[in-house]
Amino acid sequence: MKICSVLLCLLAALSFTAALRGADTLDITVIDVEGGNAIIIQNPSGQALLIDGGMPVPGDRDLNRVVATTKALGIKQFDVMLITHYDVDHVGLIPAIYAQFPAKLLVDHGPLLPNPKMGGINRRAADAYLAFLPGKKRISVKPGDTVPFKDVKIDVVMSNEAVITKPLPGAGKPNPACPATLPEAIRGDDNAASIGTLWQFGKFRMGDFGDLLQWAEMKLMCPNNPVGTVDLLMIDQHGLGNSNSPAFIHGLAPKVVISNNAERKGIAPEVVKTLRSSPGIQDIWQAHFSAMAGPDGNAPEQFIANMSARDCQGFAIKVSARRDGSFTVTNMRNNFSKTY
Length: 340
Prior knowledge:
The chain contains eight helices and 18 strands. It has helices spanning 2-19, 61-72, 88-91, 94-100, 120-132, 214-221, 246-252, 269-276; strands at residues 26-30, 39-42, 48-51, 78-82, 103-108, 138-140, 153-159, 162-163, 173-174, 196-201, 204-208, 224-225, 232-234, 256-259, 283-286, 317-321, 327-331, 336-339. Strands 6-5-4-3-2-1-16-17-18 form a nine-stranded mixed β-sheet, with no helix packed on it. A seven-stranded mixed β-sheet has the order 8-7-10-11-13-14-15, with no helix packed on it. The longest helix has 18 residues, at 2-19. The mean pLDDT is 93.
């Protein structure tokens, strides 16, 4: 019954998206996987791309939400599955999603870097993904590559801890938000190996960088910013404090940020401070109300898709971007929308 109620809610909330697929928009659906990551992107040519897929949990909560959303959007097969990195909350469900919605192409960061401190649950998820690959069409990208997806230019600016050596067109200026001394590399998971991408759809620019840690963010963004600014940023690592450095956030200067956080994972107070002080920031949208953020750290209620983890129905956040650079964000819980 619970699975059916979630599916019905998602079908009702997202059915208009499938009906309007003829529009010349880049449509982005941020699925609530409660502190993991799963984003579906559809281009005007009718292709569909999935970024990550959430994690296995009892009752198949995340899998059910991804499947329900995919069906509601009218998707039968993904053209691309982009796996930012191999931690369980990002890659854990990729084999199960692929079994229902096969992908024409899998994109990842390549070999798992040696990491004796990597936790067992993440190691098992990485091993399971790598074991699932034989017989699948797969490319492993490096900085400077592009991800094939019609109507959109997707530049890979970071992958497996390596960064682009040549700035993107119009970028490359000194980043005044960088500290005098950069932090040392600290690794205990696959977060720092995340694929970082800049998406360009006409004048619209979006950044997605998986779960980059602060030292990796600054390796990319300091002393010069090779990426430039973005209109929309999918926040790093659910809004946790060991990511989302001022050098990274202020350097990208997003107008809007979307956080795929959970009630008790993400939107750390220090990250809220960094976001709110970022030049040009207009709004922060959250997948969940955050207990971590503190009494004054959450976005206004209309910008939060799910207000409680108890009996959560997993409402999504939807973005429709246009080639002129404007975009509309919609909270699927209350249908509140704002255009930028």
